[in-house]
Amino acid sequence: MLVEDAWQRRGVGRLLLRRLPERCRRRGVAALTAQTLCGRRALLGAVREEVGGPGECGPLSDTVRMTAKLVARSPLDAQL
User: Fold this and answer.
1) For residues 66 and 47, is the Cβ–Cβ distance under 8 A?
2) What CATH number is associated with residue 21?
3) Per-residue pLDDT tens for 39-77?
């Protein structure tokens, strides 16, 4: 996912992250993976809050990879 520079810091990325897990679940996706530079703290925070999944930068790496497993939900959950 990429948000054009002119649209960054306006909530566009967070909105997309909020909607992404449910759309993926409906299509049978089992997990989401994000990989970015460790310095992208705003992005890392948004991914943790909206999608979940652990991810920490190690001392020998300048990137972090986060994977969140998507739990399948029943059709009844969508009605709540």
Assistant:
1) yes
2) 3.40.630.30
3) 888 888 888 887 776 677 777 778 888 888 887 666 555
Packing angle, helices 41-50 and 12-26, rounded to 10: 40
Whether the pTM exceeds 0.70: the reply is no
Helix (H, G, I), strand (E, B) or coil at 8: coil
* Structure tokens, 44: 């890392």
User: Which tokens sit at 6?
Assistant: 């002119």
Instruction: Provide the number of structural domains found in the chain.
Output: 1
Single out the residue of 62, 15, 69, 13 nearest to residue 35, CA to CA. 62
Dihedral of CA atoms 11, 22, 30, 79 in degrees, nearest 10, equals 160
